[in-house]
Amino acid sequence: MKKSLHNLSKSGTVAEIPLACSDELAAVEFFEKQRWGSSPCCVKCGSVEVYKMADAKTGERNSRYLWRCRDCKEQYTVRIGTVYEESRLAMRHWAYAFWRACTSKKGVSALEIKRHCQISYKSALFLLNRIRYAMAPDLPTAPPLTGIVEVDETYVGGKPRYKGHNKRGRGTSKTPVFAAVERGGSIRRHVVADVTGKTLKAAISQVVDPRARIMSDENPSYNGIGKTFAGGHDTVCHSAKEYARGDVNTNTAESSFALVKRGIIGTYHNVSKAYLYRYLWQFDFVWNGRKLNDGERTVLAVKAAEGKRLMYRAAQ
């Protein structure tokens, strides 16, 4: 995959983006190129016997950018079977939003998309929600984290904790978020109900390979997790101001949380607990693609949009 993405970048993906963000035909052709490459096919039957429909009077491409299959006789566009199916937003707006969502380390707000694209806030929010859905990991098929895996938890949003409460999470309306990050590899973050041992251990087992080596802080919720993983379990004691001991640390997981919190505070300002998981999809996607350049990461997101639908009501 990295090789093919590298070739796409060399062919001028970054150079194509500005035009795709300003010209509708260029945007449609950009999405068609990323989806089908040089071999367009029917989204209904898979046949390659297809052609672009043209205007009868001008001979130029149909104003709806339709394709037609010679085998099943169906008409379709590049939107079918993607997160932007049945969307009335221009494809140039989709191109711009994909670009910004994939290249902004701390996220991009719907208000900013609204201003730049001159669309309504409701449309911009719906557009970004669909893009985040495209970025969502396919957990059933995603490979488990291996090697050294750092695990940690944090609290996002809500009001500050009340003074005098020492127990973790008590006296706060913040949302607990769990993270497991493969050192030098991918990250998996999601909202959890609480930070009890039962919840955190279940979360670890869901995304980490049993042969991995677990690293955490001194949170007692992780006690005993080493019995489940062949690599064992090492801890650092933050309360004693110990942040690293040899290769034992959770610095990668903690730094990933710093980006999320900076994005929430500086870009989104406030995210409800009900929809926080969608923002985590976006932060994780950008983190996991950190070794790619901006063009490659955008292409990866556009390709991930195929086969996914998010209906209007579910995107509110």
Count of distinct structural domains: 2
- Number of alpha- plus pi-helical segments: 10
Mean pLDDT: 90
Distance between the termini: 33 Å
What is the N-to-C succession of helices and strands? HHHEEEHHHEEEHEEHHH
Q: How many beta strands in the DSSP annotation?
A: 8
> Residue ranges: pLDDT <50 for 5 or more in a row?
1-11
Biggest sheet: strand arrangement: 6-5-4-7-8
Proportion of residues in β-strands:
5-15%
Largest sheet: 5 strands, mixed
Helicity level: 25-40%
**Rg measurement, Å:** 22 Å
Structural class: alpha/beta
Question: How would you explain this protein's 3D organization?
Answer:
This protein is α/β, with parallel strands linked by helices and 316 residues long. It folds into two domains: 2-138 and 292-315, no CATH class; 148-288, Nucleotidyltransferase, domain 5, CATH 3.30.420.10. It is 38% helix and 12% strand. It contains ten helices and eight strands. It has helices spanning 2-10, 13-20, 24-36, 91-103, 110-117, 121-135, 197-207, 251-268, 276-288, 294-304, and strands at 50-52, 67-69, 75-76, 148-156, 175-182, 187-191, 213-216, 233-235. The strands form two sheets. It has a five-stranded mixed beta sheet with strand order 6-5-4-7-8, sandwiched between helices. A hairpin with a 5-residue loop joins strand 2 (67-69) and strand 3 (75-76). Helix 4 crosses helix 6 (121-135). The protein starts with a helix and ends in a 12-residue tail after the last helix.
